[in-house]
Amino acid sequence: MKFTCDGKLLAQVLAKMVKLATRKASASAGAELLQLVASAAGLVRLTVAHGGTKLTAGVPAIVDSPGLSGVSATALTELCRAMAPLGLPVQCEVSEMDRQMRIASGPVEQVLETMAAEEAVSPDSDDGEELETVRVPGRCLKLALDRLAPILAAMGQPGAPDAVACDVDADGRVMLAATDTTRLAMVGLEEAQVQSAAPLPQAWNLKSTDIQLLSALLNGDAAGAEGQLILKTTGWTATWSHYQFTSLYSERAFPNWRAIWPRAYTNTLEVDGKEFGAILRLLAKVADPKRAAVKFQWNGEREALLAAGNRDAGTETAVALGLEWKTRQAAPGSSLTMSAKLLEPIVKKLEAGPVLFSFTAPSQPARVRPADAAEAVEYLVMPINL
């Protein structure tokens, strides 16, 4: 096998491939394998696969000799990253007899030991009947996954569902939902177009670890690309730009989030997202993170935002914080108390504009969302006692 391709593009693609290789490497040495297939059509296809997850990317190339080979994903990535600043094409040539791959760029040349490429088998999710195809601009998919990030970062804890729900309702609207048991996020895939081979509505459970990895892979090159989510009977695929990410569904059940989502609230308050975010970050520095809390309180005559939770575990104090908000609707005596630690990463995602807090009773979950109704993102946050 022998081919020549753009060095910078190859380095960029490999940087994404190695994310999957290193994530899976702890489970199996075979996960470090990167499979390369050079075709006479002028394309080199790179694949990292382990278990039920696979990432494939196509790189345009001048192919002198088609073929198949395998190499360490980490070793090739580090080598191409070092060559990328040269701005020169990279030539790869495999000697099957010596089991070596020669990589050259300008005056730089290195040799890597090849691996058995047949180990990079396709996961079972490549098979199965295609049920749904969701076309969505890359920027919209990236934004939706970014909005889920505060919840995804906390998932994997004992008792937390290891799944992200992907729902397509009867009107063809696509929703992603995730929960860490104390918070629940619902994000709509804006501008999504659905082609369905099955009656709607439909729902699937995607592994939270795969969604986290997909979010990381989308960084940097999905802003202008149109992507697709292809939902099959056995697994799902995300495609964008040069890449195709394939995985199996989660075996864990996701709670019926639509059933627990409140439909009406008696109290709604609006705050400045940036100002409130700054207060939450300041509170994290001066109070015990496990005990720090914020409390909205309204008695019909004045409004107050209180913070509580000193670093001194022997005391518990409440201090007034200077934050003004608009009361859209509220009943006298209403109050809402939430953990500052749980709230801060959510507000950080929304602080570009005003943020709405809606609730009915101090013991019931509160809804947090942008004041801009056009953005389809909402969070439920469980209250705490102050």
Describe what you observe in this structure.
The protein has three domains: 2-119, DNA Polymerase III, subunit A, domain 2 (DNA Polymerase III, Chain A, domain 2, Roll); 129-258, Roll (DNA Polymerase III, Chain A, domain 2); 267-381, DNA Polymerase III, subunit A, domain 2 (DNA Polymerase III, Chain A, domain 2, Roll), CATH 3.10.150. Mean pLDDT is 82; it is low at 25-30, 119-125 and 311-316. α1 (7-25) runs antiparallel to α2 (73-83). 22% of the residues lie in helices and 41% in strands. A nine-stranded antiparallel sheet has the order 14-10-11-12-26-25-24-18-22. With 386 residues, it is α+β, with helices and mostly antiparallel strands. The chain has helices spanning 7-25, 73-83, 138-152, 208-218, 257-260, 273-286, 340-350, and strands at 2-5, 33-39, 43-50, 53-65, 67-72, 90-95, 100-105, 108-115, 130-137, 164-168, 174-179, 183-188, 193-196, 202-206, 226-232, 235-240, 243-248, 267-272, 293-298, 303-308, 318-321, 325-329, 334-339, 354-359, 366-370, 377-381.
Topology:
Layout: E1 2-5, H1 7-25, E2 33-39, E3 43-50, E4 53-65, E5 67-72, H2 73-83, E6 90-95, E7 100-105, E8 108-115, E9 130-137, H3 138-152, E10 164-168, E11 174-179, E12 183-188, E13 193-196, E14 202-206, H4 208-218, E15 226-232, E16 235-240, E17 243-248, H5 257-260, E18 267-272, H6 273-286, E19 293-298, E20 303-308, E21 318-321, E22 325-329, E23 334-339, H7 340-350, E24 354-359, E25 366-370, E26 377-381
Helix pairs in contact: 1-2, 3-4, 6-7
